[in-house]
Amino acid sequence: MAGSYLAPHRGLEDFAARVCRAVGADEDVAAEVAGHLVRANLSGHDSHGMLRLPQYVAQIDRGTLRPAARPAIVQEAAVTALIDAGGGFGHFSTAFALDWALARAAEHGLAAAAIRNSAHIGRLGEYAERAAARGLIAIVTVGSAGPAGGPVLPHGGREPFLGTNPWAIGVPAAERDPLVFDAATSMIAQGKIHVARAAGVPLPAGCIVDRDGRPSTEVRDYDDGGALLPVGSPGAGHKGYGLALASALLGGLALAAEPGDDAADPTPDGAAGRIGGVFLTAIDPGAFGSGARYRALVGATLDAANRTPPATGVEAVLTPGEPEARQRDRRAREGVPLSAATWEELRALAARFAVPLPGAAAATAPPA
Asked: Which of 33, 133, 156, 209 is the most buried (most CB within 10 A)?
């Protein structure tokens, strides 16, 4: 389906929140999910934006996402916590865990939390941005590994073994935007495939293989048993593979509690050789000296990176997080672009739950 639409971000956020409430989420959970989705669109990461809302509703219909669930702290020490998301919206449980970790890091210098039984947690850069805005560092990852553990091939392998297992790091800086690095450990995030499918466009070369291991750019080849490649493929795929496996193993800290410690046994179907979960840590720079001095040093270094002479054809050298900040400014003014396929899916949700869609204008080009 060709074409796309431009919709106001505030209207989209209100629509998403009302749909989430209609499927059973509490008001604060619905607001968190809706805000997260729209901020992903505003940041230019449409793969984690409003196109996810119909997917979440489908998961609720299948019983694999529990919209009314709320996170609970299962185990807690001074600087560590195990949190059970209860199968609920991962955006809310991860924000809950981050707030806990930031508060403990402000008190003790650092803190870490692991989350089990979580659904999709959205765009990881969101959590890194939140930490940096409060003057703290955050490292966030979510991963899975094992037989049928995700759509990504291990380096040198022929069968998928890994999730896309992204990492995000947020570092505060004085008098400028922070560093916010957020990337999957696969050549592209799985959500980019959803975007390409909705827009009817091919994938970048070198990102997927078909079911027989041959390189492809066609979404249909991925859908028909294909797989994603790890970052660095083909020649340096060991880099993405190592980062992806490390993500899954750190996330697996959420499964370290002995089965039977509480009513929710997190062991996934008793499957041998599978591990995963969400892991995050928060660090207060002030625990190592002067937080203000550290943020000033980071700001000066990022400024110096911006002053690096750009390569031919490049307007300017940007630091991680700056492209998203620029997109947010532009899309907040101009509107959020949505593919026609996504818009029709949202229209179906509007009809099903009697929630009006915001007004939208036809765009001249599909979303970037």
From this structure: 33
Angle between helices 9-22 and 52-62 (to 10 degrees): 0
State pTM to two decimals: 0.92
Q: Which tokens belong to 173?
A: 């800086």
The full set of domain ranges for the chain reads 1-68+335-368, 71-187+232-319, 192-228
CATH of 192-228, one of 3.40.30.10, 1.10.10.10, 3.40.50.300, 3.30.60.50: 3.30.60.50
Reported for 358-362, long-range contacts at CB under 8 A and 24+ positions apart, including other chains, are: 358/7, 358/8, 358/10, 358/11, 358/12, 358/14, 358/15, 359/7, 359/8, 359/11, 360/5, 360/6, 360/7, 360/8, 360/335, 361/5, 361/6, 361/335, 362/3, 362/4, 362/5, 362/6
196 in Cβ contact with 203 (< 8 Å): yes
pLDDT of residue 364: 60
Instruction: Look up the CATH number of domain 71-187+232-319.
Output: 3.30.1370.60
CATH topology of domain 1-68+335-368: Hypothetical Oxidoreductase Yiak; Chain: A, domain 1 (1.10.1530)
Of 106, 112, 100, which Cα lies nearest the Cα of 139? 112
Q: Which residues of the chain have pLDDT under 50?
A: 1, 263-266, 268-270, 366
